[in-house]
Amino acid sequence: MQRRIPRLAAGLVAAAGVLALTACGSGFSGSSGSSSSGAAGGLTSSKSALTVLIGSSGDAETAAVKSAVADWSGTSGTKASVQAATNLTQQLSQGFAAKKPADVFYLGADTFASYAKQGNLLAYGDQLKNKSDFYPSLVKNFTYDGKFTCAPKDFSTLQLEINTDLWKAAGLTDQDVPTTWDQLATVAKKLTKGKVTGLVTSNEYQRLGAFMVQAGGNLTNDDNTKATVDSAANKQALTYVQSGLKDGWWKFTKDVGAGWGGEAFGKGVAAMTIEGNWISGAMQSDFPKIKYQVAPLPAGPAGKGTLQFTNCWGIAADSPNQAAALKLVEKLTSSDDQLAFAKAFGVMPSIRSAAGDWKQQYPQFAAFLDAADYAKGVPTAVGANDVVTDMNSKLASLKSADIASILSTEQKNLSAVVTG
Amino acid sequence: MTSATAHRPTRRHRTGIRRGQATAGWLFSAPAFLLLLVFLVIPILMALWVSVSDWGGRGSPFSSGVQFVGGKNYAAITSGGGLAEQDFGTALRNNLWYVLLVVPIQTALALLLAVLVNNRVLKGRGFFRTAFYFPSVTSSVAITVLWYFLFNPAGAVNKLLSLIGVTGPNWPADATGVLHNLLALVGVRNGPAVLTDHTFVGISWWEWLAGPSVGMLILISMAVFTTSGTFMLLFIAALQNLSEEVQEAAMVDGASAWQRFRMVTLPQLRTTLFTVLTLGLIGTWQVFDQVFTGSQGDPGKTTITPAYLSYVAGFQNQAWGQAAAIAFILFAIIVVLTLLQRFVLRDRDVSKRRMRRAGFTDAGDGSFRTALVASAADTDISGGRR
């Protein structure tokens, strides 16, 4: 009897090993054939519950999305759960690789193309009932390979924030709010005094790019099909920024020891900064004592211009219940839901029909929404993210840098990834 | 020997008490073996396949749609002049300087601390041991955050520097290379054309010689601070294993404290030294968490490292093949350097010339005496003659 035990145990271990290997096997055997189900309007449909994966800015956002999704679950009868990701891109990638992705998820404009390229996303834009209500420039941001892929969730634009106490202390009035580059330089010089710098922004393209747009340029053309980094307009914009840095009325956040524009602004070392509508939440929670107003960015040689940033509601190509997911997204992008989200965490609705109500509720931030007409997006091509990161690393030393050489290097880098 | 082989029972004929021993052996090692296989060997083989395939992160890398692309992913990061190559070259450069500074400093510091707290004269040794070891058990994320507070332009480090009249740099934002800065002090601002015109892995030789950036010094000092304690522990353990007799014999021979350390203690610590250097080398080539939680590559990409680049390529850019290729090149670098180090630190006889240079004199009978003993003997002899 004693001698049998090892054999029995060996048999058990072998069986367990085989089981373990077959368990792995289910992961390996996945074929890419099932992706065809998403094509030609044929959405998958089943009774399975939906998972919604969000990259939340905090408890307020999580709670708002949870309640909106729970509402929909109640009326539609399809179960759905919301998960706040700790690292959205990482968790999405893991889901896609395992072929068990979240059904609906947040997706940034800068990363969406690389997922679309791999066939991870359902291109459902054209099947949305409220398709024509979205701002066209946002739709363009989420168009991959000619297909409107995912519905814009909300958007943000950059504008100029002014510390009103410092403004008055420098003897400036409402008449002095700058509308041209020259005026911006004039008021910023007046505001620069002691520890206070007139204008403090981060050194990224994601801020300085607004000036490129004002000069009539940007990193790509509007359709994201051609790199236009080394344009005369971009050079003019960066030369203007450089002159401000040299004159000392413009500083980068890193040079004043701040992590972003809002921090420098809140600490009172910046009289003006350039940030998006997200700054309202940060000011409220971190620096409630600072009084400020939001003004449109000054117009450049080519008129008004700013950058816009946006996210969309992605639906996974491998989702077993795409039909329900589409319905959920329609509900989440409806006017009611978007206004509720605006109230909860300060975003701007991505649909035109909600604009009037939003401006009525937040007149002080109207400048942000007005920019929807003239704001331009950031490059979305696969790999463009790397180019922007590289450019940002060079813009950090813009004060003494050779602008032409930065632009020509990045033109080369961006041309390699942006192919019409 | 012959009889032993002749009597060695083959499997079939095994009888008696040894029966089933092999089976039992396999059985007992099976769980560990399976764990290694499932969580180490298979993932490594999968990653190897990914590095030569066009897998894009959807479904299994072994599904039918994934094609073999040969060395394309490796070529993209090591040639072609694109951004991927530049980034990889920059990451290698950054990490190389990081390793060159961190490994020697942390090893020397660890040894110094170990010798200090191993000193029996020292009071409160337990306290110091714990204090020096403490950073090692603290979360690296917490230390990173703390370190960036200290090195903030208005932070404690610059405050301290201002006390002695030095205006500290803007540490986290200064992307200039330390070596370049030193050269600039003697008036060399632009490299010779032979260095600036030729590139290696996407960046010019002049850029390779930039040294660690001022921003990188934050990470370097942090690594030294956190890991010295760990390695100190290894050295203490080794020091406590050394026999007192050898030390006493050296004392009787009249060796000075430094000579005892250099010629007696240190050679006996060689295996520990090898362990520490190897662990240090592997750890520093894989630096990731400080970059991920602290600098994110700033300032000016001077703190991106291959490990961080691999993460970004995979999880952010969905370039999984390139990410795996970076990981395998990193693996190769670590293996080659470890082998090289093993070769350098191998056990070997010390030449007579080296002994003499270290202060030993040849006694003529194949043994050596320290110079001190020799000179003392000479004095005695001359005194006797007088």
UniProtKB/TrEMBL annotation, chain A:
PROSITE patterns: PROKAR_LIPOPROTEIN (PS51257). InterPro entries: SBP. Residues 1-25 form the signal peptide. Belongs to the bacterial solute-binding protein 1 family. Keywords: Signal, Transport. It comes from Amnibacterium soli. The keyword Nucleotide-binding does not apply. The keyword Transport applies. It comes from the Bacteria. It holds the Pfam family SBP_bac_1. This is ABC transporter substrate-binding protein.
Automatic annotation (TrEMBL), chain B:
SUPFAM superfamilies: MetI-like. Residues 92-341 form the ABC transmembrane type-1 domain. InterPro entries: ABC_transporter_permease, MetI-like, MetI-like_sf. Pfam families: BPD_transp_1. Its main location: membrane. It comes from the Bacteria. The chain crosses the membrane at residues 21-50, 96-118, 130-150, 214-239, 269-288, 319-345. The keyword Transport applies. Keywords: Cell membrane, Membrane, Transmembrane, Transmembrane helix, Transport. It is a multi-pass membrane protein. It is found in: Cell membrane. PROSITE patterns: ABC_TM1 (PS50928). Belongs to the binding-protein-dependent transport system permease family. This is Sugar ABC transporter permease. It comes from Amnibacterium soli.
